[in-house]
Write a structure and sequence with these properties.
Distance between the termini of chain B: 140 Å
Shape of chain B: elongated
Order of helices and strands of chain A: HEEEEEEE
Oligomer: heterodimer
Number of strands of chain A: 7
Strand content of chain A: 35-45%
Distance between the termini of chain A: 120 Å
Largest sheet of chain B: 7 strands, antiparallel
Helix content of chain B: 10-25%
Largest sheet of chain A: 4 strands, antiparallel
Number of helices of chain B: 1
Structural class of chain B: alpha+beta
Radius of gyration of chain B: 37 Å
Number of helices of chain A: 1
Chain lengths: 154, 270
């Protein structure tokens, strides 16, 4: 009877240990899940924030072609003034000139800060700036926004 | 047996509680803050879009009427702007571009102290003495100038008087807008004939005849004159051999009031 009682006592240790082990496993796995969830939530939030900020910058960008002039003194050059009237800076990636069925593209990657006006000089290339020609200017920013202007060459 | 079962039940309870606590912890420390954060970001985006819509709306509500006119010194012009919109307009630049596009003058805060200029709704401001000497060629065929006013919100308004032409004599004349003197003569005779003379500055005289031989009543004629200034208007009835003076009037035409109307009564006249 005593022996039986000892056995019974020995068996009493196992539930405690198993409870501790089980709890440790639960805490460990739970901790891992917690940590993973937290980092996933952080990454998701951060990515979402970046995407939204990019969209915000896209919609915040405001610019237009304020004027177009022609310098015919030496090499014919079209002068395009771009005014950034938005609240954020922008980068003019390229300006395309169309006229008489021809198109010429000019790469710039020039920054225009908010409230600033910048003049872009476009030397004559495929589009010849002949009198009476109607020329359309297309300005594209790095954020894929575009502005247009046109002029009739006198 | 009963003890054993109760032990097992207790063990199950601990891990369930722990698991539940962990899930609640995850919910409160990761999921809910993430949703709150995303919601805040969405709110920021919505606020930005609303602000931009307001800004775009204000931009579209800008309405300036611009009159550019030359001064007698032959080199300078004045630019008057009337704000007919419902929002205040901040003029940041004035463009003067010669008609052949070869030369451009940009007046801004760096070379014109009166800029930027805030024009409140229903008010008028004039920026005076813009010197165009740099781009005047003194060749009448080339000296056509287009004047435009640019605003901070990204609008550009052309002058009603474009193209402003500087003649070889030094006088400025308007391109598209014509100054008008409208004359009404009241007559009850059936065959009256009127001579209307308009004498203006630079001794330019304009004549017009109103022949009322076929119509009775109120006669209307319009003079167009090229420049603003003071004009003397004389109306004579020339039906008979001797011209009969009906009346005269002095008219002041300005760029703000480019039209004027005068009425003369010749009822019961000869």
């Amino acid at each position: 009877m005593r022996a039986w009682g000892r056995i019974s006592d020995k068996r009493g240790v196992a539930p405690v240990i198993s409870t501790i082990i089980l709890s440790a496993v639960v805490i460990a796995i739970g901790g891992m899940v917690w940590s993973y969830t937290q980092s996933a939530a952080t990454v998701i939030s951060s990515d979402y924030f970046d995407e939204v900020m990019e969209s915000v910058e896209n919609v915040k960008e405001r610019f237009y072609v304020e004027n177009i002039g022609l310098d015919n003194t030496s090499q014919p050059t079209l002068m395009v003034w771009v005014f950034n009237y938005g609240e954020i800076g922008l980068t003019v990636e390229w300006i395309r000139v169309q006229g008489g069925g021809n198109i010429s593209s000019h790469q710039f990657n020039t920054s225009v800060s908010d409230g600033e006006m910048v003049r872009f000089d476009l030397p004559q290339s495929e589009v010849k700036f002949a009198g009476g020609l109607s020329v359309t200017v297309e300005v594209k920013s790095a954020r894929e926004n575009k502005a247009y202007g046109s002029i009739l060459i006198p | 047996m009963v003890r054993y079962l109760s032990h097992r039940r207790k063990k199950r309870g601990v891990s369930t509680i722990l698991g539940t606590l962990l899930m609640v912890g995850i919910l409160f420390t990761s999921i809910i803050p993430m949703f709150i954060y995303i919601n805040e970001v969405n709110n920021y985006y919505d606020r930005t879009v609303v602000d931009l819509k307001i800004a775009d709306q204000e931009r579209s509500r800008e309405d300036l009427i611009v009159y550019a006119y030359g001064n007698n010194d032959e080199l300078t012009i004045d630019v008057s702007s009337i704000n007919r919109g419902s929002v205040a307009v901040n003029v940041t630049r004035i463009w003067v571009m010669r008609g052949d596009l070869q030369d451009t003058l940009i007046f801004n805060s760096t070379n014109l102290s009166s800029l930027p200029l805030l024009i409140r709704p229903s008010t008028q401001e004039t920026i005076g003495d813009l010197n165009l000497a740099e781009i005047i060629t003194n060749q009448s065929s080339l000296d056509f100038f287009n004047i435009e006013v640019a605003t901070k919100r990204g609008n550009k308004f052309s002058s009603q008087t474009n193209s402003l032409h500087k003649q070889e004599t030094g006088e400025w004349e308007t391109g598209t807008m014509e100054f008008q003197i409208q004359v009404i003569v009241l007559s009850d005779m059936g065959n009256d004939r009127y001579l209307i003379e308009v004498e203006g500055i630079y001794n330019t005289t304009h004549y017009n005849f109103v022949d009322s031989s076929t119509v009775q009543g109120q006669f209307f004629t319009v003079f167009t004159v090229p420049v603003a200034g003071t004009y003397n208007l004389t109306v004579s009835n020339i039906k008979g051999h001797t011209p009969n003076h009906v009346g005269n009037s002095t008219i002041v035409l300005t760029w703000i009031h480019p039209k004027s109307i005068r009425q003369f009564d010749d009822r019961g006249g000869s």
